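Researcher: Good morning. I'm working through a list of sequences from a screen, and I'd like to move beyond sequence-only analysis. For each chain I'm collecting a predicted structure so we can compare shapes side by side. This is the next one on the list. No need for commentary yet; just the structure.
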Amino acid sequence: MEKAVLNILGISAYYHDSAACLMQDGEVVAAAQEERFSRKKQDEGYPKLAVEYCLQEGGITYKDLDYVAFYDKPFVKFERLLTTYLATFPRGIRSYLKAMPVWLKDKLWVRTHIRDELPGFGGEILFGEHHQSHAASSFLMSPFEEAAICTADGVGEWTTTSLGYGQGTKFELTREIRFPHSIGLLYSALTYYLGFKVNSAEYKVMGLAPYGEPKYAQKMMDEIIEIKDDGSFHLNMKVFDFATGLRMTNAKFDKVFGQPPRAGDEAELTQFHKDMAASVQLVTEEVMLRIARTLHKQTGSKNLCLAGGVALNCVANGRIIRETEFENIYVQPAAGDAGGAIGAAAYVWHSLLGNPRNGGMKSVYLGPKYPDEEIETYLKELGVPYKKYSPEEMVKETAKLIADQAVVGWMQGRMEFGPRALGGRSILADPRNEENWQRVNLKIKFRESFRPFAPVVLAEKAEDWFDLRGKDSPYMLLVAQVHENKRTIPAVTHVDGSARIQTVTREQHPEYYDIIKAFDELTGCPVLINTSFNVRGEPIVCTPQDSFRCFMRTHMDALVMGSFILRKEEMPEQIEGEDWNQQFERD
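Model: Good morning. Structure tokens for this chain:
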């Protein structure tokens, strides 16, 4: 009799970046964020559509699930909120009155909500700790048999940073830093102070940092954060309001640095703001470097696993590789809260049930795929001109379009899991043309001109172009310098000579690899601009419908979906029922 497959559904929800994953006998067969289906950026609700997709991809129903694993413990988090409000009463009364209705209505009743959403499910619902889920998402999904572990984010239940060690199917988090002391919340506080959206635009601060000098880093370390030699730290809570108020910083913070917060996203970005971005970036790197050195000294491991939102700081990750004794680093590609869904499921399968590791996370392409038949049916319904190519012709034609300076929307295969576009849902362009930096930012992405673009490079030629120290970067989570003799790709070279790099092999994504190779054969350059297929304020596209709509509302020149290529100059000005002039929400 054939052994039944054991199905575990992992869920993260109710804060930001809700997601679901399905693990079948220890293999992640599907994972996706709710925002990609709901089209609500950073959707925080129960991931109903993502769950439905995962079950469909796994060929099962609710009744076939053995376990549901939730990524944190709501009651412990609620305890932290109540304890904090009571300790600081009456300062936090406004925040308390805003938070309590949501908690009492929804966030405390996760078990009930899950049962209601999964009719017929008769298995167990298990709750992991937030940083335990982060750690599991990295270590248990890594290729390492043993490794040091660091998780860092804003806050889970109480923990904001945890350190530990893993071997085989077990790991232990032996040290932690607790709320309100948080390197993630420090970075978010500066995101707020610089006029950007918290929990959404921290990457803008990282992109802005190279335009400034870290003039205020020492002042930060003198007056707002004390960092010890081992990487532990302590925030001066007198200058922050995030623990009890509706703001991240307060007037005392303004006094330390001599200016009030920037008045929103549309206000002028001055050199002061750029220097503040550079300063908090340097402070964050210093914390992470000290933590990494301490972990290496304590564990002796040559491997390091990272997760949590701070692990998406690819500049810090690059410095850890270059400046510490760790030889290998693995960052969970969905390092933020979305990845907690995978971590919760992995912890149940490996650590609780004791099943052996199976080589880690095989792929990041875990979302939906749309076959040519479905794409063509949609295009015929629209009545728009298109041309179908063989796979080889499609690759050659797309490479030629890019070499001829077309900006191409690219939808191929399964959608990526995590915040980075990695060749499943990407916008591609020629990195040799410096004008493409501004063109793609302003006319296609509708975003700030200072934002850098990432290069994707053939893995076997990466070291010729970038100082990666022999490391692969398949998930775009390392920053390295562009070699001086290769500064011929200005559209992906940041002002400090760095680049946030994705390396790709044919095994990882054949069509994506083939187009870069074809571009290399045409131009002698094995590098493309790769940015996410979306515009400012919108989630990355998922479906053919999303892709076509984004294509038509921007100045993209061509759209490649499966075997089909559409050219903008051939598109009708209007299609019944569609409004290409709709303005996207600004994030």
